[in-house]
C-alpha cells in the first residue's frame, strides 16, 4: 500500500477524533473553553510530543504548541537540529482549564479526574499515529502516558515504558522553564536540551525519512 493509502484512513480518523473531542463534555472543562485543541503533525510521525493542556493562545487558535511554551519548545527543536514538521504534538487534556482574574484567563493545572477523563482521547490518538516513541512534557502528560504518578524531577531524562511497551521520555514542561528562577535559566535550558536530546535518534530518523 502506498504511503498515501496508508495515511488516509488514520488521517480521517484523527480528524473525526478531533471533532469528537470538541463536542466532548465528559469533564467540566469542555463547557468553559473556546474549543478543544487536538494534536497536529504527520499521521504516522515517529515521535509524538505530549504536553499538559492548551493554554490561552492555543485555546483561541485551536492549535497546540503555539503559545509562549510552544515557542520555547520550537527553539529547543531548532537547537537540536530536529524537524518540527516531522513531530506530532498534542496534549494530555484537550480543553483549556483556567480561572478568570479580571479579564485575564489564568492557566490552572487540570485535576487528576479531568486528566483521567481525557485519557481515552489521547490513547485513541496514539493508536492512530503509532509513534515509535513519545516525549512527556511535565507531570500531567507523564501520568497520562505511564498510568502512574511520575516524579518528574527524579524521573526526567530517561526512557520509561508504557503499558503497551512504547518508549516514553519524561522531562519538564517548557512552562516550568519560563516560570523558573532567572538565575538558573541557562542551566535549566541546558539540562532540558540534554533530556530532549535522548530522543534525537528517533527525531532525526523521522527527518531522514522525509
Ligand atoms: S478536557 Fe477532555 S474529557 Fe474534558 S471535556 Fe475536554 S475532551 Fe472531554
Proportion in β-strands: 5-15%
How does the major sheet shape up?
5 strands, mixed
The helicity comes to 40-55%
Report the CATH topology name: Uracil-DNA Glycosylase, subunit E
Gross CATH architecture: 3-Layer(aba) Sandwich
Give me the Rg, rounded: 16 Å
The domain count comes to 1
Bound molecules: iron/sulfur cluster
Supply the number of helical segments. Answer: 10
How many distinct beta strands? 7
Can you say what the CATH homologous superfamily is? Uracil-DNA glycosylase-like domain
What is the ordering of alpha helices and beta strands? HHEHHEEEHEHHEEHHH
Distance between the termini: 18 Å
Unreliable stretches, pLDDT < 50, 5 or more residues? Answer: 1-5
Q: What global shape is seen? A: globular
Report the top-level CATH class: Alpha Beta
What class, by secondary structure content? alpha/beta
3D structure, described in words:
This protein is of the alpha/beta class. It has a single domain, classed as Uracil-DNA glycosylase-like domain (Uracil-DNA Glycosylase, subunit E, 3-Layer(aba) Sandwich). It is built from ten helices and seven strands. The strands form two sheets. The protein has a five-stranded mixed sheet, with helices on both faces. A hairpin with a 2-residue loop joins strand 3 and strand 4 (104-107). Helix 1 runs antiparallel to helix 5 (112-129). 39% of the residues are buried. Mean pLDDT is 94; it is low at 1-5. Iron/sulfur cluster (SF4) binds at residues 21, 24-27, 29-30, 36, 93-95, 114, 117-118, 121.
Amino acid at each position: 500500500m502506498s504511503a498515501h493509502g496508508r495515511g488516509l484512513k488514520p488521517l480521517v480518523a484523527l480528524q473525526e477524533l478531533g471533532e469528537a473531542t470538541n463536542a466532548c463534555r465528559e469533564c467540566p472543562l469542555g463547557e468553559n473553553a473556546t474549543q478543544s485543541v487536538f494534536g497536529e503533525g504527520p499521521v504516522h510521525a515517529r515521535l509524538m510530543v505530549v504536553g499538559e493542556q492548551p493554554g490561552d493562545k492555543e485555546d483561541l487558535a485551536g492549535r497546540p504548541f503555539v503559545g509562549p511554551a510552544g515557542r520555547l519548545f520550537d527553539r529547543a527543536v531548532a537547537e537540536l537540529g530536529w524537524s518540527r514538521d516531522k513531530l506530532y504534538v498534542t496534549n494530555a487534556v484537550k480543553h483549556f482549564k483556567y480561572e478568570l482574574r479580571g479579564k485575564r484567563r489564568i492557566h490552572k493545572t487540570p485535576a487528576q479526574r479531568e486528566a483521567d477523563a481525557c485519557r481515552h482521547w489521547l490513547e485513541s490518538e496514539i493508536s492512530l499515529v503509532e509513534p515509535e516513541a513519545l516525549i512527556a512534557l511535565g507531570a500531567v502528560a507523564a501520568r497520562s502516558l505511564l498510568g502512574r504518578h511520575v516524579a518528574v524531577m527524579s524521573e526526567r531524562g530517561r526512557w520509561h515504558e508504557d503499558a503497551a511497551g512504547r518508549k516514553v521520555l519524561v522531562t519538564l514542561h517548557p512552562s516550568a522553564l519560563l516560570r523558573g528562577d532567572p538565575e538558573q535559566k541557562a542551566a535549566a535550558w541546558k539540562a532540558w536540551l540534554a533530556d530532549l536530546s535522548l530522543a534525537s535518534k528517533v527525531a532525526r530518523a523521522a527527518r531522514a525519512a522525509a
